[in-house]
């Protein structure tokens, strides 16, 4: 759990966040401290303890599969940084 | 001045037609013009839109609409910049949303409108609600109205400062680990975090979905009850909202607290708890006893693990929730040679330090090889923390604690040490992990400088009536809420 264990470049890549070398250095040190504190949880025996995903246990919240009113297409596109013909423009993915 | 009134005070004047809604709104706008340059509670506000809403309300009142049917008729309420208000900006205190304009109203906004409220302003906050000081906003720091060299708390710092400085009558905030209760305590107002599932989150930009709740900031406990009643209820658009009947919270006030049992967790009397805060909380406990409540010591043995548990679960959920800010569909875009580079550059440029730190921590604890050691273990410890509370509530009706270990600290004091900042949330975080409800009310002041101190009452799941009743009884006897920061007067 020591600070050295976090491969900041790799994790930043997984998170799709570009970092400057200075940011990498600073974050690695800060995350090291935080992970040291988090290591405290290893003091506890959690054998046979069920994990809690949500505080209010609710299961199978369903609704009828039917068409309901939704945001009109042009309003949904309104905040797009780049668009044309009602579509989002992105860099070329397939050659 | 009208802007200084409570919801109930202003509603009484509007009902009697002593004043108009337009005058009420104008009074808040005047106060913003007068003091917000010093406090910076608002990122922006749309005066013309607020006045236009007021005109409509004034017409409704003159054609017979009443506060019995619309409890918030003509009440100006300001909104944290994380909730969608149709045709208004939504930035979450971040650069990454660019010039985003909300295409729809959040459910809580629909409910406020249906109750007659006038919705105005975008209140400053820590970016994506990550922080305890409102220093992590791309739009500048909000200052504490009691001392502008100090932080207002966070993440809903703008919501607390605006209410404390009488720039609005009430406001909405959100609470993931204390982001309503802690700034309410530090600014001297009333802040309530409802039980998980009590209030719909449709239209709230998600931070940590198993912890987030929306709640009110008000000038007194009665207003908190009124606003909670409006906000609560199941919503088909939020599958985590719970189909639990909504009681008349205001009707629960005024009852006796004689015979109620209050628990004082021994684990909360930690080193690091400021002496003046401790003295104020001790005095409040004595007051409760004097009013007939029985106070007993209880134990919440897993308290010391709450901060670590929270910073695994909240960051893991945030890393997933904030994946949507990728520069494709809305907000900021920084171009790249392919989509992967576009995502990374956009997120590198758009997110601030604290958000990057938390997304990276959350990504790490969920990554292959670490999931069991961190995330799964944290979810199991969460069960232990929740069980501590459920066990305690078998013996007591509510739990009394300080809201924050200290009064407001200086701007910049903790901003370079994220772990110290996280540890200052020690008293508020467990409530979110356990999914219970909590309220912070003023319980005194430090001597020099004079800064508000907050008392926290924690209640059973869906036990808001009980904590509101206890808080109200205390407030009737100890009306700290009447004290205003000199800057606002």
CATH homology-level superfamily of the domain at 2-252 in chain B: Amidase signature (AS) domain
Strand count of chain B: 11
| Strand numbers in spatial order across the main sheet of chain A | 1-2
Give the number of helices of chain A. Answer: 3
Count of DSSP-assigned helices of chain B: 15
Strand content of chain A: under 5%
**Proportion of residues in helical segments of chain A:** 25-40%
What is the end-to-end distance of chain B? 9 Å
List the chains of the largest interface with their residue counts: A-B, 50 and 76 residues
- The total strand number of chain A stands at 2
Q: CATH fold name of the domain at 2-252 in chain B, please?
A: Amidase signature (AS) enzymes
Indicate the CATH architecture of the domain at 1-43 in chain A: Orthogonal Bundle
Strand order of the largest sheet of chain B: 1-3-2-4-6-5-10-11-9-7-8
Descriptive notes:
- The radius of gyration of chain A is 23 Å and the shape is flat.
- Chain A has 3 helices and 2 strands.
- Helices cover about 30% and strands about 5% of the residues of chain A.
- Chain A has a two-stranded antiparallel sheet with strand order 1-2.
- The mean pLDDT of chain A is about 90.
- In chain A, a hairpin with a 2-residue loop joins β1 and β2.
- The two termini of chain A are about 45 Å apart.
- With about 500 residues, chain B is of the alpha/beta class.
- Among the domains of chain B are: about 250 residues, Amidase signature (AS) enzymes (Alpha-Beta Complex), CATH 3.90.1300.10; about 80 residues, no CATH class.
- Chain B has an 11-stranded mixed beta sheet.
- Chains A and B meet through α1 and α2 of A and α9, α10, α11, α12 and α13 of B.
């Amino acid at each position: 759990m020591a600070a050295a264990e976090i491969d900041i470049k790799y994790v930043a890549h997984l998170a799709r966040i570009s970092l400057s070398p200075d940011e990498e250095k600073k974050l690695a040190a800060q995350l090291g401290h935080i992970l040291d504190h988090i290591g405290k949880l290893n003091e506890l025996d959690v054998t046979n303890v069920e994990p809690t995903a949500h505080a209010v246990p609710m299961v199978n919240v369903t609704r009828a599969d039917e068409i309901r009113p939704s945001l009109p297409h042009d309003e949904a596109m309104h905040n797009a940084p780049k668009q044309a013909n009602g579509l989002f423009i992105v860099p070329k993915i397939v050659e | 001045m009208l802007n200084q009134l409570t919801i109930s005070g202003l509603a009484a004047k509007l009902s009697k037609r002593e004043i108009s809604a337009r005058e009420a709104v104008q009074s808040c706008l005047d106060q913003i013009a007068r003091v917000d340059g010093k406090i910076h509670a608002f990122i922006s506000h749309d005066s013309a839109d607020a006045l236009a809403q007021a005109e409509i309300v004034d017409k409704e009142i003159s054609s017979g609409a009443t506060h019995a049917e619309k409890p918030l008729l003509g009440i100006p309420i300001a909104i944290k910049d994380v909730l969608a208000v149709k045709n208004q900006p939504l930035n979450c205190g971040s650069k990454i949303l660019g010039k985003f304009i909300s295409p729809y109203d959040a459910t809580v906004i629909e409910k406020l409108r249906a109750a007659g409220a006038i919705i105005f302003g975008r209140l400053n906050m820590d970016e994506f609600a990550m922080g305890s000081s409102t220093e992590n906003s791309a739009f500048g720091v909000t200052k504490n109205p009691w001392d502008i060299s100090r932080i207002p708390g966070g993440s809903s710092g703008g919501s607390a400062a605006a209410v404390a400085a009488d720039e609005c009558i009430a406001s909405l905030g959100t609470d993931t680990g204390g982001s309503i209760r802690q700034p309410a305590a530090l600014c001297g107002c009333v802040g309530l975090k409802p039980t998980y599932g009590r209030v719909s989150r449709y239209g709230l930009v998600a931070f940590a979905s198993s912890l987030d709740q929306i709640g009110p900031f008000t000038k007194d406990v009665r207003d908190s009850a009124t606003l909670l009643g409006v906000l609560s209820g199941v919503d088909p658009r939020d599958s985590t909202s719970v189909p639990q009947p909504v009681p008349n919270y205001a009707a629960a006030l005024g009852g006796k607290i004689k015979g109620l049992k209050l628990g004082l967790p021994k684990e909360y009397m930690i080193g690091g708890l400021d002496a003046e805060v401790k003295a104020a909380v001790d005095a409040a406990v004595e007051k409760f006893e004097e009013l007939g409540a029985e106070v007993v010591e209880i134990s919440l043995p897993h308290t010391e693990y709450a901060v670590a548990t929270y910073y695994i679960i909240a960051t893991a959920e945030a890393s997933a929730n904030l994946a949507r800010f990728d520069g494709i569909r809305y907000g900021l875009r920084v171009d790249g040679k392919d989509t992967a580079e576009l995502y990374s550059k956009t997120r590198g440029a758009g997110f601030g330090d604290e958000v990057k730190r938390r997304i990276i921590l959350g990504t790490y604890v969920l990554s292959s090889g670490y999931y069991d050691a961190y995330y799964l273990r944290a979810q199991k410890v969460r069960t232990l923390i929740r069980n501590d509370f459920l066990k305690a509530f078998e013996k007591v009706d509510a739990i009394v604690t300080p809201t924050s270990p200290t009064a407001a600290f200086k701007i910049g004091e903790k901003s370079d040490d994220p772990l110290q900042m996280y540890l200052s949330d020690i008293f508020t975080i467990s409530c979110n992990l356990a999914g219970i409800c909590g309220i912070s009310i003023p319980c005194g002041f430090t001597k020099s400088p004079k800064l508000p101190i907050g008392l926290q009452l924690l209640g059973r799941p869906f036990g808001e009536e009980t904590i509101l009743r206890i808080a109200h009884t205390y407030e009737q006897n100890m009306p700290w809420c009447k004290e205003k920061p000199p800057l606002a007067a």
